[in-house]
Amino acid sequence: MANIPDQMLAAQVVEFKKPYKIHKVPTPGKDLNEYDMLVKVAVASLCHTDGMVTEGIMGTPLPCIASHEGSGTVVKVGSAIKEFEVGDRVLCSLTYHRCGVCADCTGPEVNRQYCPNVGGYLGVNRDGSFAEYEVVDGRECCLLPHNVSFKTAAPLACAGITVWGGLARAGLKAGESVAIVGGGGGLGHLGVQFAKALGLNVIAIDAREEALSLARECGADTLVDARSGKEKVIEEVKKVTGGQGADATLNVSDHESAAATGAAVTKMHGRLLSVQNNSSHK
After folding, report:
1. Running DSSP on this structure, what letter comes out for residue 28?
2. Helices marked H in 109-252
3. Which of 130, 158, 192, 203 has its CA 20 to 30 A from that of 266?
4. Which residues pair with 272 in a beta bridge?
5. What is each CA distance from 252 to 18, 56, 243, 258, in whole angstroms?
6. Which residues lie closer than 8 Å to 79 by C-beta, 6 or more apart?
7. Which residues on adjacent β-strands are paired with residue 23?
8. CA end-to-end span of the chain, whole Å?
9. How far apart are CA 132 and CA 144, in angstroms?
C-alpha cells in the first residue's frame, strides 16, 4: 500500500444551506480505535439524507465531511479487527460504534441497523465518505465480492440496506407476492432486484415512464402505472394476485397518495411497510 498522506481532499458541509466546500483537510486515522479501519475511498454516493444534512435538519456538528454511502480499500486496521486486512475491498457502513447491549443491538430481530446509544453515523454527525480517506467501524463493514464494483456497491450502504430491511420484515417466502410503491425509484429499483433474488413475484407501481422502464429492466414481473388512478391500480394488482392483493407491500414513495395506495393493494391480513422520507422535511 502507498504511504498515507498527511492531508486529503474532502467535501465538507461548513455552513448549512450552502454548497459543499472542497478543500484539503488532515487525513484521519493516525490513532485508530481498536475496532476501526481506515479506508481509501473509491466511490461515495449522494443520498436524500445528505440534502437533509446540508439543510441543517439532522443537527450535524460543523464542519462535517458529507456522504454515508462509501466503498473502498482498507489501508489500516484496528488491533481488534480480525475479519479484514489491508487491501480488502469493502462496503462502508454508516453506523459507528453501537453499544452492543441495548435491545436493538441484542435482538432477537437480526435486521436492526440502529442503536439509541450509537457513537455516530458517518456523514451525518461524523465525517463521512466524500473524502479520499475515511475512518469506519470495522465491525459494520462488508467484504465486497470481486464481481461487485465499487460504483455498484456504494449505494447499498444506505439505500440498499434500507429497502432490504423492509423486505426482511415483510417475512415473505419464495413464490409469494410483494408490491413496491415507487418501484422504479432509488430504493425501489434495488428492492425489485432483491425481491426477485428471494424468488418473490414482484409488482412495481410507479408514476413515471422512466421509473416503470427501470423497474422492468430490474426484473419486475408486473408493472402498474399509478397515473391510471387508485381504482385501476387496485384492479391491476388483484388481477395478478388471484383477486386477493399483494401478500406484502413496501411503500418507498413520499407522494401524498402513496401510503393509501400501498394499503389498498395489500391483501387482508397482509403486511404494509412504509420506508420513505417525507419530502417536506416537516
Report:
1. S
2. 150-153, 159-170, 186-197, 209-217, 230-239
3. 158
4. 249
5. 28, 23, 24, 8
6. 34
7. 10
8. 46
9. 19
Which amino acid is present at 57?
I
- Whether the ω angle into residue 63 lies within 30 degrees of 0, i.e. cis, is yes
Residue pair 232/210 in contact by the 8 Å Cβ criterion:
no
C-alpha cell of 137?
A: 467501524
Tens-digit pLDDT profile for residues 25-49: 999 999 999 999 999 999 999 998 9
What pLDDT, in 10s, does the model give residues 76-92? 999 999 999 999 999 99
pLDDT at 2: 60
How do residues 141-168 score in pLDDT, each as one tens digit? 999 999 999 999 999 999 999 999 999 9
DSSP secondary structure, 66-98, as one string = --SEEEEEEEEE-TT--S--TT-EEEEPSEE--
Contact 150, 156 (CB under 8 A): no
Please tell me the total number of residues recorded for the chain in this structure.
282
pTM score: 0.90
Lowest-confidence range among 107-111, 112-116, 214-218?
107-111
